[in-house]
Amino acid sequence: MKLKNIYIIAKSSILLLVAVVTSCSKGFFEKYPLDAVSDNTFWNTENDALLALMGCYNTGAFWKGEDFWTPRSLLYLDLMAGNGSEKELIPDRVTDGTLNSAYGLIASYWANSYQKIAACNNFLDHIDQVSMDETEKEIMVAEVRTLRAYEYFNLALYYGGVPLITNVLTIEQANNVERASKEEVWSFAEKELFESYPILPVTRPADQEGRITSGASLAILGRLLMAEEKWDAAANTYKTIIDANVYTIDPEFLPLFQLGNGGGKEVILSSQYKEDVYGHVLPQYLYPETWGGWHQFSPYNELVKTFECIDGKTIEQSPLYEVHNPYENRDPRLDYTVLISDRSVFKGQTYISRPGTSSPDRFNRYNWSGYAIRKFMDDSFDGNLMNYGANWPLIRYAEVLLGYLESKLEAGDVIDRSLLDQTINKVRSRSDVNMPAVTTTESAELRSAIRRERRVEFAFEGLRYFDILRWGIAGEELNRQFTGMKLTNEPANYTDFDVDEEGYLIYQKRAFKIGVNELWPIPLSELQINSRLRQNQNPGY
Question: What value does the mean pLDDT take over residues 177-190?
Answer without folding.
Answer: 96
